Task: inverse folding
């Protein structure tokens, strides 16, 4: 079936994998990628698909309600996959406001435009909101996040995402807008901006720079290969039940310090360094304020209802990820100059002291 689909944040990390999957798998769809190209947006992530005739890029800001209205009028979207967001917890701690405006107001602008444009009824329409497991708060040593776990966001980032989730559900209950939501755990893979733990560590190891570990490195995250997240998004978009929420996770918990040691061993091998060379770069720095201890997703619902399970083992995914960064040094070099250097100095030099 022909459809016109809006993907927001398609120049970012996860968004670019979703755009790639949709453009390649559904040539009958028109895919419109809307992205403001903030520091995190990078059209280089899409050079393998951007020449396809079914793909269109629109530069624009979801905070601009008039622009969003006009875009919806122009394309008459059948479906929306909403990924655009400010996504980095540390940045939300130093500058929360951008998170409030983009993640909350930007989401409401999209919901309003969808309501306005789908005047002839909501049949065959879908507003899919992509969210995070961080809305559930922080776990102790045991237990998992379920779809019915109460919200308990603890950083400006997670509070802004929680707020957007509530608004999406409110538009479903109040106006009958057809929505679906997913809450996913930590993604890793190609094209992730090197402010996040894994690409930051890969880049620092490559350049023999200190690997900053917050606190004691005991915090736990549940890691999922980004291509598996994109596969799950495809399934939920096409087969998910309207009004429902699905948790997505890797069943793959790692303490930060163990993950970094695993990464160091892979890097030593790939860079033909003596074993232990990369590990010697590990440097403990001041902890993140309000650092959530542990996230872990129970992804039984999406497995039972839609048949989704992760396809890759973590070590295989990590190897592929390292290979991608080592083979795409130019991509990294273009990012880690200018503004990135300023961000890095502010974030880490002051923390180290
Ligand atoms: P990212 O920071 O890599 O990309 C975000 C994209 O949104 C960028 O291309 C940026 O230019 C764009 N953007 C930001 N503000 C915008 C605005 N005002 N208007 C239009 N575009 C704007 O983020 P990501 O890691 O790819 O995350 C994508 C989505 O998935 C986010 O909603 C995030 O909350 C969610 N998520 C991320 C993870 C993860 O581990 N990275 C896990 C679960 C959920
Ligand atoms: O859980 C899903 C979330 O995962 C997403 O919603 C967010 O968008 C995404 O950024 C990610 O959030 P985290 O805060 O978990 O990811 P980050 O890569 O920033 O940090 C992972 C862990 O590593 C966390 O415990 C903090 C720690 N860390 C991070 C950095 C950047 C360090 O120890 N040192 C670092 O330099």
Result:
């Amino acid at each position: 079936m022909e459809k016109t689909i809006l993907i927001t944040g398609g120049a970012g990390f996860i968004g670019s994998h979703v755009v790639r999957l949709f453009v390649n798998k559904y040539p009958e769809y028109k895919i419109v990628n809307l992205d403001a190209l903030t520091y995190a947006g990078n059209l280089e992530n899409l050079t393998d698909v951007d020449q396809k005739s079914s793909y269109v890029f629109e530069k624009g800001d979801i905070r601009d309600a008039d622009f969003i209205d006009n875009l919806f009028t122009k394309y008459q979207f059948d479906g929306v996959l909403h990924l655009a967001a400010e996504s980095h917890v540390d940045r939300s701690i130093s500058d929360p406001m951008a998170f409030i405006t983009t993640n909350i107001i930007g989401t409401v602008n999209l919901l309003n435009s969808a309501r306005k444009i789908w005047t002839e009824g909501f049949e065959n329409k879908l507003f899919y909101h992509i969210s995070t497991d961080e809305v559930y708060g922080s776990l102790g040593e045991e237990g998992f996040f379920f779809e019915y776990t109460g919200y308990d966001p603890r950083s400006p980032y997670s509070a802004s995402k929680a707020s957007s989730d509530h608004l999406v559900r409110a538009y479903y209950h109040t106006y009958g807008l057809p929505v679906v939501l997913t809450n996913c755990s930590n993604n890793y893979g190609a094209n992730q901006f090197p402010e996040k733990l894994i690409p930051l560590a890969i880049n620092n190891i490559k350049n023999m720079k200190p690997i900053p570990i917050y606190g004691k490195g005991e915090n736990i995250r549940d890691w999922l290969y980004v291509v598996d997240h994109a596969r799950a998004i495809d399934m939920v978009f096409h087969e998910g039940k309207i009004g429902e929420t699905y948790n997505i996770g890797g069943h793959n918990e790692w303490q930060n310090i163990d993950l970094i040691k695993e990464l160091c061993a892979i890097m030593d091998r790939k860079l033909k360094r003596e074993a232990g060379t990369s590990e010697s770069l590990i440097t403990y720095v001041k902890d993140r304020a309000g650092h959530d201890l542990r996230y872990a997703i129970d992804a039984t619902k999406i497995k039972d209802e839609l048949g989704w399970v992760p396809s890759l083992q973590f070590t295989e995914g990590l190897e592929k990820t390292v290979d991608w960064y080592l083979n795409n040094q130019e991509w990294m070099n273009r990012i880690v100059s200018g503004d990135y250097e300023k961000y890095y100095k502010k974030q880490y030099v002051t923390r180290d002291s």
Q: What stands out?
A: The two ends are 58 Å apart (CA to CA).
